[in-house]
Design a protein that fits this description.
Chain lengths: 182, 393
Amino acid sequence: MKEIRIHARAGQGAITTASILGYAYFSKGKFAYAFPHFGAARMGAPMNAFVRVDDKPVRLRSQIYEPDYIIIVDSTLLRGFNCFAGLKENGIAIVNKREGIDIPKVKAKQKVIIVPANDIAAKNIGRPLGNTALLGAFSAATGELDVEALVEAVKQRFSGKALEGNIASIKEGYEFVKNLMR
Amino acid sequence: MKEFLEGSMTVAKSVALCRPGVISAYPITPQTHIVEELAQMIADGHLKAEFVNVESEHSAASVVLGAEATGVRSYTATSSQGLLLMGEVIFNIAGLRLPLVLTDANRAVSAPINIWNDHQDTISLRDSGWVQLYVENNQEAMDFHILAYRLAEDKSIMLPVMVCMDGFILTHGIEIVDVPSQEQVDKFLPAFKPLYKLDVDNPLTLGPLADPDYYMETRYAIHQTHKKVLKLLPKLTMEFAKIFGRSYDGLVEGYQLKGAEKVIVAMGSVCGTIKDVIDQMRQKGKKVGLLKITCFRPFPAQAVYEALKNVPKVAVIDRSLSLGSFAPLASEIRALFFNKTKRPKTISSFILGLGGRDITMDSIKQIFSIISKREVDNEFIDLKPELIKENYE
């Protein structure tokens, strides 16, 4: 079983991100359960979305406390929260880049990958919605899913220009991390 | 066809496959996605039904009451305060013997305001005469709505059914669901033919005054009909299995009950978490099991008795409270063992997950650990003592 925790603010598309990720796993024959947990249930309030993936149906319904992977959509959350809480010893965190945000020091085997996802999105989609760029980065950093599965998943969600922009964002996010790792 | 579907979309698809003629609802978190999707289907021309916009849940329930009374299959969905605002009409719908199906996205009840999941809303209406079914996952949500209409509209039943699904955890949870075809659903669920209906050409009165000479028999009739539900539902699930390929008992589901020495009784999505804990503990040789209650009204006392009569230690999980008394599900379990010679040595009662307090595998392990040592009553798990100011000892 793999567990992914997404940190965002309500309205920033974390549920969509989780659902795209879940669908990508589904398209690969895996069983996924994607679900949100709202804090104050108001736009802008910190919230989480989660994806739990397994080779058999997922029955566990609790939130995720010891994720294998973390995706931070809005890194201003790091000012008030320890978004890395419970990250596995060899866990990977994908963080949306933002100036002036300090990333806490992580354990030796943990990896933090900072991606200028909003810049990538602004260029490709025309709006700074870095979610799909982060998913591309997730694919490259974790090797969990190939880009094609993610592209297939966004096709279920978007069409027209939004689809093209999001596919371009996924690919650029992926390439950005591949270049980092080279 | 297998789809990766949100729970609310699952319910909307299931309801649409049942071909309702009238839908009326008022939005409330976490139910809203269900009727939003149904309204969209109607607007897009994919579902031929009348969607009636109303100004409150009381009106929504009244509209579907009226629609059902004219012999039209109808649907509504709600949650928490919305269900309570419907409360007066809810009793009427059962009293009028109208086979409505309602989805409740289970949510805590105010005050203080809380949008998250527990079972207090539907449990508070357990005595309304409705059949209450609690689902564990989105596949069950899909299937039990289809079963609900078939059961409700059976000529020997004619009672409304409430399908209760955990708010957010299931309504906003996305997972794989096998969506049946229209042909399959049509084969299982024929068009609704009411016994009686309001019709201007053949006038009749439904639900008039019943004075002390008549009222009591109407209550007796509903009570007796509930007993028929216990016999019919398992038959319907067998027929369902033949068409859809998925089998349910309909009343209860046993998991690892064979030789089990400690069994948890629970309802809803938490059963999935419990099953995972049981698998872990069984691997270590612990004889633990689960009895899931799907049908809470009517209460399947005989099925529960058979499942638990040889189990030494039972723990009942309630996700609601009867404030000032024993927990609702635990009371039922204890009552049915009254005067029985075969019975568990201990029946403990636990309160978990009120107002969305997360239920983890550790919460469940704690329960198994506690009942190994002692019998407890109304034991709160995952309570935060640091938040409690007064001393209640």
